[in-house]
Write a structure and sequence with these properties.
With 186 residues, the chain is mainly α. 66% of the residues lie in helices and 5% in strands. A three-stranded antiparallel beta sheet has the order 1-3-2.
């Protein structure tokens, strides 16, 4: 049966030695035995338990919750996972709100003279004034998408086109080009 020193098992799981000492101190994972000189020796079973601990820690469950889950032999402890899932959803909403706030703050910091003054409507009107009809604009998008897809994406966003609409335009442009520009992009 394979055994591990504290350094071996720490390296195997990408943990620090002090993390394993902490797990031992709080009773989450104690080594199966100690050598005569007091060194901790972990068994294969200890390694399996540590693997479960690491998986559960990635869900951000508390040490107490992890201990309860590991020590419960019969129940799958679904309530802990449901609770953590709900907390994660709330954290994601809070992060999304923070992202929106930061984005708005950054937009407000742009110097007025550096702000983009050409929006989607103005761009379409300029193309029409230059003599382009719908079909020519479709070919223009298809060619832009073909030659420089990421630049096309950035350009659409710079016009104030929402991300989902920009993705739809790009997809349609690729289909238009594959359809030979005959209008049958489906």
């Amino acid at each position: 049966m394979k055994s591990y020193t504290i350094s071996n098992i720490a390296r195997l799981f990408g943990l620090s030695r002090s993390t394993l000492l902490y797990y031992d101190r709080v009773g989450l994972l104690s080594p199966s035995r100690r050598t005569a000189s007091g060194y901790r020796i972990y068994s294969e079973e200890d390694a399996k338990r540590l693997e479960r601990i690491c998986m559960l820690r990635r869900t951000s469950l508390s040490i107490e919750d992890i201990r309860t889950i590991l020590d419960s032999e019969d129940a799958p402890c679904a309530e802990f996972f449901e609770k953590r899932l709900k907390e994660t959803e709330e954290e994601m909403l809070a992060l999304k709100a923070r992202q929106g706030l930061l984005s708005a703050m950054l937009k407000g910091m742009v110097r007025p003279e550096a702000r983009q003054e050409v929006d989607k409507q103005m761009w379409v009107e300029m193309l029409q004034a230059a003599g382009m009809d719908e079909r020519a604009m479709d070919r223009w998008h298809a060619e832009f998408e073909h030659r420089a897809p990421e630049a096309h994406h950035r350009f659409l966003l710079s016009l104030g086109v929402p991300e989902d609409e920009a993705q739809m335009i790009r997809l349609w442009s690729r289909k238009f080009r594959l359809g030979g520009g005959n209008g049958d992009a489906s």
